[in-house]
């Protein structure tokens, strides 16, 4: 019976004809009063999984969401559909808040959005006691996971919901869940007994591509001109400065690009966001602050000019492409400098060692994905505990990377690092090591007498580009590590296996420079 009611709401309120994969089962379960933990990729249609039960069940659906900046938009969108919705968060003035509270108590709201920190306040809990609650929806549930990439301490308090309202069904939803995060969400939110719904994380219409970073802005421009002329897309950069530079560069080259980062005035941000959403073919150049909860179906590409900090983040950000199911591109340019920079951030970050180890593990997993010789999609799915066969559509499937026996090269490089380590006070990064291997008498090489080392010039058989690739891959394999402010290269314990115990090191061949760049280099 509930099924027909849900279907009716789907068509009458939301204007859709049929449910997407998984939605109906979840909705029926929650309408029936059951708890649910939902893992579904971005764009899968999670919102309806709690919105429809909230409309079908008596009372108000209380939605806990960390996305304060989007609450107004979400509520406006629901109101436009005729759904009675409201929100309570810190951005409101007291009058507005009192009005929403009164509506809730009077049973005049179907969906109430709450920031998690509200639930730490006793008065909010008492307010909730005075109304009828249809269900609790905990959106972005991975925020409760300390192991995850987006931990919010306020989420920990949500475990108390089941004690105070044992009869109210709870549905937790997330688009990011490795096995470890999944288990942690279940236990921290007391959802062990809940039914778990795990949708496939495969996004077959997204083509994943990861390329070595050379001249990132030019590489990006090339991609946009050749494959995505006139398309809407998101370009992610790590810093505000590179957001600005990149947006300027694109505009100068005839691409309609708008910057978006937390340092811009709120009005500018709002305007850029709304132009991206409403106009056609706008490229938004943003820090990762942009995108959570953004619902634009025809984003044709997501480009990363810097290495994301985790596979979860990468998956979530790239997942904003192609929600309409049409072919889309996820393109990432990454280089050695990204690794050095992120290690530096991790080393200098606040927090204890355990925190640093966690963040490092996330970075390592991301690096392994970048340097993989296997199908990117299969690797991504495996990361989320799902299996997939080679997709035939990602860069490694389309142009399988060739591999070569890099054992000797690795030994040369690692023993150079060993030699430099003996000079206790001085620390050297990849640049100096590559110069030594290539036998370059730079000022810095001469200053430190590095041209007298036995390894000086032993690597002349490879190019600088290839050596940098070797460094990256050894980092990804955990045979080398980066340390400190200057990106000093150090050996890991495993490096001994290569240096002294005959471990083989297969490496992927570096893609050739494009013809144009090669010509320019000669000129
Ligand atoms: P998620 O929260 O999982 O990222 P959303 O709930 O925002 O995804 O849904 C993504 C898009 O898909 C939205 O535009 C939504 O309206 C649309 N959508 C969801 N369910 C359906 C459906 N059954 N039929 C058609 N469109 C749907
Ligand atoms: Zn593939």
From TrEMBL:
It comes from the Bacteria. Residues 27-195 form the Helicase ATP-binding domain. Keywords: ATP-binding, DNA damage, DNA recombination, DNA repair, DNA-binding, Helicase, Hydrolase, Isomerase, Metal-binding, Nucleotide-binding, Zinc. Its cofactor is Mg(2+); Zn(2+). Residues 517-523 have a biased composition (Low complexity). One of its GO terms (molecular function) is helicase activity. It catalyses: Couples ATP hydrolysis with the unwinding of duplex DNA by translocating in the 3'-5' direction. Residues 216-367 form the Helicase C-terminal domain. Its EC number is 5.6.2.4. Belongs to the helicase family. RecQ subfamily. This is DNA helicase RecQ. It comes from Streptomyces synnematoformans.
